[in-house]
Amino acid sequence: MKKLITNLTFWVLTAIAAGALLGHFAPATAVKMQPLGKYFIEVVKLFINPIIFLTISLGISGMGNLKKVGRVGGKALLYFEIVTTFALLIGIAVAWLVKPGSGVNTSAVQGGDISQYTSGASEFSWLHFLKDNVTIQVLILSILFGIFLSKYTGRDKIIRPFTIASTYVFKALHIVMLFAPIGAFGGMAYTIGKYGIATLIPLGKLMVTVYITMAVFIFVVLGLILRYYKIAIWNFLKYIKEELLIVLGTSSSEAALPSLIEKLERMGCSKPVVGLVVPAGYSFNLDGTTIYLSMAVLFLAQVYNVHLTAGQIFTVIGILMITSKGAAGVTGSGFVVLASTLTAVKVIPIEGLALLLGVDRFMSEARAITNFIGNGVATVFLANNEKEFNREAMKAAFANEIYEYDLTAIEEEKNQITTPNTQR
What is the pLDDT of residues 79-113, one digit of tens each? Predict the structure, then answer.
């Protein structure tokens, strides 16, 4: 019983169930719970950039071989492009076969204002993406600073306080994560209270199709990627189950991103690989978003009886291969990218976006969870590929039913990083 009371997973699950019940039976009250989820995410986001900066800077400074930094970064971008393209093709294929948009009565679906997304579509550019995406800016700054430290002869005087700061940042994060059930409760209560389960019925086929497709992608595609290095996807999912529940409750992968970085390191992935892959993947490895966008385009074409030719489908694939990479850096990301795609194709009515407004919030959980798992799998795969993976650490991590912060192990690792190199 005592073990259950201290189990964060239990409390997050309880909070999600309580939020759903409140949203269903007292929607007016549930909507007022939005600040609980919103501010929890905002607080966690405060940790993202400091953790990225400290992790990458310390990792690169201790790596020694700067060629490895470029190699890992290049492999990561290649991996992201291959896997997200595969996700895109899966989304297109499933939507083409299942036809979730066939027979949808548009009059039965309550529309909404899409002007904010259509205006954003015309304004989207890679320049804005790089300018507005703080995470990418911090990633670049961290790499440059890490390279500087690796070349600076007096780096030990800088590394030591940074190491101490990293320890206290993670300590503070653990305190904040104790409030995860409150954030999950607020997020779930608001979603159910505002949109209601009834909004799912007219577009239920699309919802079910999207969820099943993403489940297949996780357990088949990502599962095979991990199996290449003899790692079971189910063991990995059990290891990050608390983070997955937080993402589910808040509909945001950001809410668990700092915790994922720490868990991947504890699992055996080297600090430099984690620091490079996870932040970059947050912006460029959006498997769930890519699947949803590809299926949404074909769904709207089916709703309006627009028969896309093979050439038009390849055009959709080509456009989404580019625009989906910037989805994380745009306000209303999914709809802006979707509006951009529909505008470019010019055969599907863009007002069809209003059909998706009601159910988009319920599908955001699937997108966020798939993106989150995809980035974790990418990091594990690339760490193995670089021979920067400790399998004994992974076995020890998987053996713990409840994740406990091993401060001693972290301190030993950091002491190794800060030990002066006496060999010249």
Answer: 998 999 999 999 999 999 999 888 776 665 555 55
Q: What is the pLDDT of residues 112-166, one digit of tens each?
A: 555 554 555 455 555 665 666 677 788 888 888 888 887 777 778 888 888 888 8
Kindly state the tokens that stand for 54. Answer: 């400290």
Q: Does residue 61 form part of some domain?
A: yes
With cut-offs at 50, 70 and 90, classify the pLDDT of residue 404: very low
**Residue 317 in tokens:** 């694939």
More confident residue, 137 or 238: 238
CATH of the domain at 36: 1.10.3860.10
Give the domain range for residue 142: 2-417
Query: What is the three-state SS of the chain?
Result: CHHHHCCHHHHHHHHHHHHHHHHHHCHHHHHCCHHHHHHHHHHHHHHHHHHHHHHHHHHHHHHCCHHHHHHHHHHHHHHHHHHHHHHHHHHHHHHHHHCCCCCCCHHHCCCCCCHHHHHHHHHCCHHHHHHHCHHHHHHHHHHHHHHHHHHCCCHHHHHHHHHHHHHHHHHHHHHHHCCHHHHHHHHHHHHHHHHCHHHHCCCHHHHHHHHHHHHHHHHHHHHHHHHCCCCCHHHHHHHCHHHHHHHHHHCCHHHHHHHHHHHHHHHCECHHHHHHHHHHHHHHCCHHHHHHHHHHHHHHHHHCCCCCCHHHHHHHHHHHHHHHHHHHHCCCHHHHHHHHHHHHHCCCCHHHHHHHHHHHHHHHHHHHHHHHHHHHHHHHHHHHHCCCECHHHHHHHHHCCCCCCCHHHHHHHHHHHHCCCCCC
- Asked, for residue 423, whether it belongs to a domain, the answer is no
422 is a domain residue: no
Q: What is the pLDDT of residue 354?
A: 76
- How far is residue 409's CA from residue 412's CA, in Å, rounded to a whole number? 5
